Amino acid sequence: MAESARQTALRVLERCRRDRAFSDTLLAGEIGKAELDGRDAALAARLCYGVLQNELLCDFYIDRFAANPAKLEPKVRDILRLSVYQILFMDKIPAHAAVSEGVELCKKTGFARASGLVNAVLRKIADSREHLPEIPRDDACTYFSIKYSIPRALTALFLREFGAETEDFLKASNAPAPTFLQTNTLKTTPAALREALTARGLDPIENPLVPGCFEVSRAGDLTKLPEYADGLFYVQDAAAALAVKAAGLSKGMTVLDACAAPGGKSFAAAMAAGDSGVIFSRDIHEKKLPLIEVGAKRLGITSIQTAAMDAKTPDAALIGACDAVLADAPCSGLGVLRKKPDIRFRDLAALEGLPEVQRAILNGLAPCVKPGGVLLYSTCTVLKRENDEVVTAFLDTHPDFAPEAFTLPDPIGTVESGRLTLLPNRHGTDGFYICKLRKKHD
């Protein structure tokens, strides 16, 4: 019997819980193994990401309606979470269907003995949807942690970063992640791509900050579209596109994309430079380079040259050779919670060493920039310790660099300080940091 979307989602959730595996990579593999069609694949993804985004909130209700929540077996709790998410967040799935599917999952996965318990808990929650227990409000950290399913320690960190804006940020970070497609201007125009996407029923909406960037709905497997095969677009969030735009690239430039995989910024740089000059796409993980090479070939880009490289110790041939260096440094990823909800469960202590790595990358890449050239530092996190504080520490030891203003489309406009933090609640993009530095002439 073919596996259902719910069985696939359950298996991914179990692996995420047990092994803390990353859901995006794991989900793609499991959907392929189960041979789900487009509709079921989309449902499995929605269920998986939705549960991870709301895990602590689902647990809050489960613990209040189960007689002995501490004694629930881990996989039974996974089944309950999956079903509670459907009951509370998926209007198109009738509550009675979510209950019965939860019971069926118990039977299909060897936990038939728990089907009565699961049925009772889910029926209570379904019957109480209009008057669920309230989350305690006496402590803001606890309240936000439960409501937005962010571990308490991380919630406290966000409260220190954002203060009164914290709830807006958490709410936006827990919303479904939009899919953005960037027009390949080497092959087509935004108007032509919009027409093609509309004909496919994807309802493209052009992003106000990035011309030629379209948000699409009901995307499904984009790689199956003829427009994808023809290289008319690539997938990239508006924030990453804005980072390349801030660098101010032009035709004939020599550009180093120092942490390049999977290649989006290299592709954007090549298009900004009219596929002239050269884009050195470097990444420390050699096994990721084929992603860039295959993408460049599909898009018809010829100016990209790939090789493995540690950005902290760049190739000697690159010293003093680059008009612009893009340093999209490894980071905590806390700006992309809506895309990668399991990031919230990372051990915060393991992230404390990231600023040291980020500073080492900037220090290593600085000599690659020609006098008068640009060093563009970016991350997909929102923490000052990985962003402004890293840049400030770099500038303290590199007086030959200075921040430079850059201009982006309205409503952002000119960023006089040369430093910008994009937020999902303010800009509708990933949480993202951009800093433009100019190397002084000798």
Concise summary:
It contains 18 helices and 14 strands.
Plain-language structure description:
The protein is of the alpha/beta class and 442 residues long. It folds into four domains: 5-131, Orthogonal Bundle (N-utilizing Substance Protein B Homolog, Chain A); 140-173, no CATH class; 179-235, Alpha-Beta Plaits; 238-439, Vaccinia Virus protein VP39 (Rossmann fold). 44% of the residues lie in helices and 15% in strands. The protein is built from 18 helices and 14 strands. The chain has helices at residues 5-19, 23-34, 38-53, 55-65, 74-89, 95-108, 115-127, 140-147, 152-162, 166-173, 190-199, 226-229, 238-247, 264-272, 289-299, 354-365, 388-397, 424-427; strands spanning 179-183, 205-206, 213-216, 233-235, 254-257, 278-283, 304-308, 322-328, 369-379, 401-403, 406-408, 413-415, 419-422, 432-439. Strand 6 (278-283), helix 15 (289-299) and strand 7 form a beta-alpha-beta unit. Helix 6 (95-108) packs antiparallel against helix 7 (115-127). The chain is globular. The N and C termini lie far apart (71 Å). 46% of the residues are buried. The mean pLDDT is 94.
